[in-house]
Amino acid sequence: MSDSSQSAEHDIDIKKHVRIYIIVFVTLLALTLITVAVSYLHLSIVPAVTVALVIATVKASLVACYFMHLISEKKLIYISLSFTAVFFIALMFLPLWHMSDNLTH
Amino acid sequence: MRPRKERETPLEHVAAAEHHTHDHGHEEHLGFWRKYIFSVDHKVIGLQYGVTALLFLFFGFSLMMIMRWQLAHPGEPIAAVFFIAPMALIGVVVFFISGIKPSLSMLIGLLFLGMAGLVYYLTSGDERFPGGIMLPEFYNQLGAMHGTIMIFLGVVPLGVGAFGNFVVPLQIGAPDMAFPKLNMVSYWSYFVGGLTMLVSFFVPGGAANSGWTSYAPLSVIATTGQTMWIIGMVFLITSSLLGSVNFIVTIVQLRAKGLTFMRLPFFVWAQLVTSFLLLLAFPPLEAAAVLQLMDRVAGTSFFLPSGLVVSGQALQNAGGGSPILWQHLFWFLAHPEVYVLILPALGIVGEIIANNTRKPLWGYKSLVYSVIFLGFMSFIVWAHHMFLTGMGTTISTFFQTTTMIISIPSVIILTALIISLYGASIRFTVPMLFALAFLPMFGIGGLTGLPLGLAPPDIHLHDTYYVIGHFHYVVAPGTLFALFAGIYFWFPKIVGRTMNTRLGKIHFWGSFVAINFVFMPMFIQGLAGVSRRLYDGGQQYAHAQGVLYLNNVMSIAAWVLGAFQVVFIVNFFWSLKRGEKADTNPWHATTLDWQTPTPPPHGNFLHEPVVYRGPYEYSVPGKKSDYTPQNEPETSGQKA
Amino acid sequence: MQIPYTVTPRSDTGLFNGKLGIWLFLASEVMLFGALFSSYVLLRTGAPTWPRGWEELNIPLATLNTAILITSSVTMVMSWASLMMKDFNKFRRYMGSTILLAFGFLVVKAFEYGHKFELGHFPSTSNFFAVYFTMTGLHGLHVIGGIVVNSYLLGPGSKMWNTEPERFTNRVEIAGLYWHFVDLVWIFLFPSLYLL
Amino acid sequence: MHDLLGLPLDASTHGGDIDNMIVIVHWMMFILFIGWGAFFAYLLVRFRASKNPNADHDGVRSHMSSYVEGAIALFEVFLLIGFAFPLWAKRVNQFPAEKEAIIVRVVGEQYAWNVHYPGTDGVFGRTDVKLVTSENPLGLDRSDPFAKDDITTINQLNLPVGKPVIVRLSSKDVIHSFNLPLLRVKQDAIPGEVIRVWFQPTTTTAHIRETLTRTYSIAGGKAPAA
Ligand code: HEA
Ligand code: HEA
Ligand code: CUA
Ligand SMILES: [Cu+2]
To answer: Could you tell me which residues come within 8 angstroms of residue A72 by beta carbon, excluding any fewer than 6 positions away?
Structure first.
């Protein structure tokens, strides 16, 4: 974003951005209310986790894509982050896998 | 953007260096503190890392000598003078070696004397050596701190902090690291971390004593030293994280014009992958350290299950934690960490082999891809350290398979390095000797990793000296030799003098023979079933009595090994002032680090270098000179 | 030679140094919090019983805090957008609000902690509280870090606007990326600790 | 090779398989090392600067090495599928039936192994951390009828020959290595977990004693075999 600085057309660009920020902001607040509302239903754990994580992921993606401009980032950053994502998944699930496949009696 | 300068041949650079009339000359007139202590110049920081790391290596080695004394003579009073006198002597010699005036040698001489004092402290006192006889608890401190110091304070700071800092910006034609101030913070964070580890010997109960692996619950119920260990680690991790961000950005962003990724010297590739390992593997250990700290000081139970009874007392904790969780988080770092130990070493060996065979590295592309693949895989093999924690068939199948897969790129790398010798014109310089020795030594270490990576043999070999033998072959005659090679190789670029060759050869042959006598017997003991971390060296093992005489062999070899290091230390300091003068490119090398004056000026290059070719254009057919620097324009040199 | 690409992007990567640097740093932060989440999941699935968040924690307060943090993310990005539109005064207003909101977050958090302590709930009470205090505590430290950086940019650091406006804008962008990440972590912490 | 490697006496039914695998892996390692080593040594001599003053820019042009690497990979697959997976499955999945086996509880602590036999009724008595004292390190509840005939020992694991044994392994304080090298058994004893290990001794105590120069105690994390 900051690469092409001065031009007038860029100003308009930024104004467009600002509109997006407001939309995202409102969406985030709405999603927060929804996820809190769902929590008051006291669902059992599996559906509760599913709903909460889906909503949280959507919210996080909105923040990352629009506030952090990830939606229009450079290739190098995508590469680094995809490695990170893979290792994150390994870190999340391999220990759990071990726990579900151990010799404890 | 910088103004484009005219192209110049490397020779003109050299000429310009003599006059030193450049506009940035004034920047060198910084005060003592800014120039040597809180420097932001990558070369100075690299040297700070180097000197600190070498001292820590030496200290880690001293701890090991005390341990080896105990293993060879369990239950006998220690002859402490035996360790202290040589260290003090080294201190005195180094102090005087460059005459009486404030200098690096004087400082280091004093530090050696300090170390001798520290060893005196450690080999006395009723908490450690009542009646001159070592307590088992103290042996455990020595073991844990030897491992920690060697890995986190010695080899990594030397391989990444020192060589990475000094060489990488030069090899990619950059004026400095991308974030010089951050670089300084990295070093000082490392320094504080190291100091914390040292100070921990003086707290009640002594230093950490739960192994470098700090397995819970032992580490959670251990004495205060463990808290110091955690705090020290947090500083070291911070240092590595900042450093790795810096390296990656530097390599990606500051490459000289024309220096595409596939023209990077192999060493730079190794550092790039290493940095990614540090960046993504260390944070989980940081998290684990925080959790362990909470367990120790806030009374939580992350790693403590319910119903613990320690020394007959039921532990008053909430329980419900998992000791295995610590191991997962620890090895998530520590396996990639072992590749952090080996990759810079491989990089150094690659540079030196290309230079001393006078031909390009064979299979450069396969080397690069293998290193990347190795780095990637190293994140998903970690639980091969945990086969005996109770693994079912599916999870052990996964980790055995990934472990076997990761050995393939290592084989490819080693093979490519060996095949590089084919058709060569090998110069047996001192750096080359160390680099060549690295290959079979790493081979032995790597090959003995295979039975460990297969779960059934690991039943017999786990926690025995076989494991100790395996990894010392990769880290000591492997990585350490590569680091020695690097020191001999880049010394002339740093100080403008070469190290003495005769002393270098004595150092090499002595170390090479001795070190094999230290580590080869470990395999024999391990196969016979002698466990590691035994303070009596296995005396109580009826089934292993036949191999216990080897304890003495190994200890004597370790002392001989130590004696040959004195040759190195003397050579090092002697050559600082009296070594043979070297010009800017004494090895006739092709990479950019050698195409700038010695020592490189502030900003590294007199003119922005431009790269025209791959890193190792040695013996190009039809060229007069047997090396073509990366920045030599295509037209010149072809005049023949 | 000067260090290149501190302000302008390098043509083949399209990035200036700081931008790549902060993303790498955030990648390491992902692994840091990833490890904590992994520990949390492991401990929780291994535990015979584990309280549901609403049984122990204050959802309305946390919802308020979520709103505060989201708002501060918007003001943060607006402060950067203001600089892009060359409106320094607007930048100061937005940046000031970001910092105030961050303080607001911490104040709410302090009330929450205080209340827990009054009830006798400490990190040592149970693994639920151990996880709760450790994760929110570490997140809180990140909030404090953000306050420090942002205050610097609002205060002494803002002088750079007069000398090197582009570089200053970059710095604000980088601080913003960090701050959004802190928000992002909270977006996951909030449901996993309070709502499940 | 078995003797060359100096593996200790094997006194269990499954130990042979493990030793076998160790031997096979080491054969592969030796062959690779000798092969590479010889090639390496040849190169060092053949291409020293005094013999070969001008280097060849390209060096090796063939792709022989890829085949060697492929062969190593194949051999590793063979090791995994032919030995490692089935052997491990036998160790951790194919337990003998509990009815036919001797079941023992072993609980580690600093610095002793507590052994708990269920007695003639074959059922372990109740244990409770609260009952742990220095005389009762396992916290066995003697009022439990099942506990009446239970036997406990310290640092002594007495087992008959020729009958499968299942050890239920745990620890009171920290992680210990339950290591019976002559039975090729090693397993971490982890507090908070009870891990099952099985084996079947094949050699009598007397024979083992003979081969040992000393009987050994288990304080350092060892238990005497048989
Ligand atoms: C630099 C460090 C380093 C390196 C590179 C390696 C490399 C490997 N390691 Fe090692 N390892 C450690 C350091 C290292 N390790 C440490 C420190 C420990 C112990 C930690 C502790 O418990 O305290 C350990 C422990 C360890 C274990 C756990 C053992 C146990 O506790 O029971 C295992 C198990 O799988 C293992 C496997 C491997 C494998 C398969 C490789 C492979 O990557 C190796 C691949 C290489 C090859 C296969 C070599 C190829 C050979 C040739 C091509 C022949 C060349 C010959 C000539 C030139 C003549 N290692
Ligand atoms: C990089 C890692 C590294 C290195 C290099 C070494 C090097 C050595 N190690 Fe160690 N070691 C470990 C990492 C390392 N070690 C780890 C992780 C453990 C496990 C700990 C645990 O159980 O938790 C261990 C454990 C360990 C044990 C087992 C202890 C036990 O289980 O009870 C033994 C036993 O002999 C041993 C010996 C040695 C020896 C003789 C060397 C020698 O090779 C040392 C040679 C050293 C030098 C040659 C350095 C010389 C320095 C200089 C010359 C500097 C000069 C200075 C200036 C110029 C200023 N080590
Ligand atoms: Cu128990 Cu070591
Ligand atoms: Cu490993």
So the answer is: A1
Assign D216 to helix, strand or coil: coil
Query: CA of B449: how far to CAs of B336, D72, D100, D119, in Å?
Result: 15, 14, 38, 43
Q: Report the C-alpha gap between B384 and D68 in whole angstroms.
A: 26
* C-beta of residue D175 within 8 angstroms of C-beta of residue D188: yes
Residue A60, token pair as written in the block: 């996080």
CA angle B592, B593, B595 (to 5 degrees): 60
Q: What is chain C's Cα-based Rg?
A: 19
CA atoms within 13 Å, Cβ hemisphere of C125: 17
What is the reported pTM?
0.94
B87-140 pLDDT, tens digit per residue, is 899 888 888 876 656 677 888 889 999 999 999 999 988 889 988 899 988 999
Q: Which of B280, B322, B398 has its CB closest to that of A87? A: B280
Smallest CA–CA distance from C36 into chain B, residue? B287
Q: Residues C162-181: pLDDT tens digits?
A: 999 999 999 999 999 999 99
**Residue C66 with chain A: CB contacts under 8 Å:** 32
- Do the beta carbons of residue B78 and residue B69 sit within 8 Å? yes
Ligand 2 contacts CB of residue B445 (under 6 A): no
- A104 reaches D (C-beta below 8 A): yes
Chains that touch C (3 or more CB pairs under 8 A): A, B
Ligand 3 centroid–CA C151 distance in Å is 52
Provide the β-strand partners of residue D116. Answer: D105, D152
Question: What span, in angstroms and rounded, lies between the C-alpha atoms of B73 and B552?
Answer: 8
Ordered DSSP codes for A4-48: S-S-HHHHHHHHHHHHHHHHHHHHHHHHHHHHHHHHTT---HHHH
Mutate to test the pocket of ligand 2, among B108, B150, B153 (most ligand atoms within 8 A of CB): B150
Residues of C in contact with A75 (CB under 8 A): 14
Distances (CA, A) of B164 to B160, B246, B261, B275, B483: 5, 11, 17, 10, 12
The Cα–Cα gap between B69 and B134 comes to: 10
Residue A15: what pLDDT? 84
pLDDT at residue D216 is higher than 60: no
Give CA separation, B284 vs B277, C29, C34, C57, in Å. 12, 9, 8, 27
What lies within 8 Å, CB to CB, of B604 at 6+ separation is B43, B169, B170, B173, B174, B175, B176, B596, C1
Nearest CA to B122 out of B201, B69, B200 is that of: B201
- D17 vs B456: CB contact, 8 Å cut-off? yes
Residue linked to tokens 């109740």:
D126
Question: Which residues in chain D have their CB less than 8 angstroms from residue B392's CB?
Answer: 92-93
Helix axes C127-154, C165-189, angle to 10 degrees: 160
Reported as type and span, the H/E element at residue A82 is helix A75-100
pLDDT in tens, C55-73: 999 999 999 999 999 999 9
**Ligand nearest to the Cα of D177, by number:** 3
Q: By C-alpha distance, which of B24, B526, B210 is closest to D6?
A: B526
Q: Which residues of C touch B241 (CB under 8 A)?
A: 25, 28
Residues near ligand 4 ion, CB 5 Å cutoff: B 335
Q: Which residues of chain A register pLDDT less than 50?
A: 1-6
Beta-bridge partner residues of B225:
B207
The minimum-distance atom of ligand 1 relative to the CA of B385 is 28
Q: Is D119 in the pocket of ligand 3 (CB under 6 A)?
A: no
Split at pLDDT 50, 70, 90, the class of B23 is very low
What residues form DSSP beta bridges with D115?
A: D106, D153
pLDDT at B81: 85
Q: Which tens digit of pLDDT belongs to each residue from B408-452?
A: 999 999 999 999 999 999 999 999 999 999 999 999 999 999 999
